[in-house]
Amino acid sequence: MIDRIEPKVKTFCQLWFDGQKEPFIVKTFEYKYIWFNKWGNYKQGIYQPYLIACQIPKPFRGLVPASVSLVEKQCDTATNNLRVLYNRPLDDKKKGFAVCVKGLDFLYDDLSVRLVEWIELLGILGADKIFFYELQVHPNISKVLRYYEEQDRVHVTPLTLPGGQPNVPGFQHLFLSKKTTHKRQNELIPYNDCLYKNMYKYEFIALLDIDEVIMPKLDEDRTWHDLMARVVEKGMKLKNDTYPSYNVRNVYFFDQDQHEHEWAKDTPRYMHMLQHVQRAKNYTKPNQYVKCFHNPERVLTLHNHFPIACLGGACHSYPVSTDDAQLQHYRADCVRTLKKSCEEFKENQVRDTTIWKYKDELVQRTRRTLDTLGFFRPSVGGRGKDSLYKR
């Protein structure tokens, strides 16, 4: 991040290659702004997200630099040095789906049980790996993440805020809750870091929050692979080419205070998503609050909801029909910008049990994980293992 807009300062990349005594120096190719002016904070002195690019010089084409430093003058002694990551599989075979999760900021909220249900559901849907970035989290959330890391199902990267922004736990949480636009700009760093670390490894990359699930609607679409095989084919008929991204419409599954809804029978009450099957009748408007499956061979920079820059020009996103899939968003309320229309969403709800096609497997997986983590109270009076407690 850079604390200025439209930076004019000339900078250079010092590219270090194995076996070379000196770096090869090239001029910075571009500063690509990962934000839109109209979204706010477009002023000097506020840290702004950029993608800074340098071209590999011709004598070294085909070689991977060991590291790179960014300097203002060609022969400056660098004060930074970044190892170059080139995570390309040796056999060039890609896995299917990666999920990237922005910096977790749950210092006081224990969402560990809901997190287990979410991770297990994404596993059933076909997520090969989930990449978390961690700011500050409750100890039980850490326990869950470490468990899945040991199974190689998730990867957790510790995260701090750049520059002079706060990193003291309580102060950082307060800063992010009050400075929403700063928070949104900071989120773009882990999102794009996740893209570039995994661009050669997966066919699709999705950016999701832990209260969101891209849900296939049709019975024949058991997994994301089934869904996207059909969706990509539909898109090819329109464009005769793949799209940089495929966006899925958002719909709210509201959390009811004190569970005013009826409890689903034969389903543990701690299964939050399985228990919440009332949703807003209407989806949010097209292109608003959507989430995408991104094609990493086509996108350059990503925002929470859409790609911002793409190879080959404009970022065309294919709208996935709500007959095929929906973004199930589990929230107590709408986002602030939908405050005026939120009551209408809440007053007009329908029952949607699409998620129940995964119920048996999801309950079994979640129960097994919670048991392994020691989150169940010892059985008393025949109540069995559905009574939760967490140390």
Automatic annotation (TrEMBL):
Organism of derivation: Culex pipiens pipiens
Listed EC numbers: 2.4.1.-
Recorded topology in the membrane: Single-pass membrane protein
Keywords of the record: Glycosyltransferase, Membrane, Transferase, Transmembrane, Transmembrane helix
Major localization listed first in the record, in broad terms: membrane
Classification via PANTHER family: GLYCOSYLTRANSFERASE FAMILY 92 PROTEIN (PTHR21461)
Source organism phylogeny: Eukaryota, Metazoa, Ecdysozoa, Arthropoda, Hexapoda
GO cellular component term, pick one: membrane
Name of the featured protein: Glycosyltransferase family 92 protein
GO molecular function, one term: glycosyltransferase activity
Pfam family for this entry, one: Glyco_transf_92
Subcellular location: Membrane
Superkingdom assignment: Eukaryota
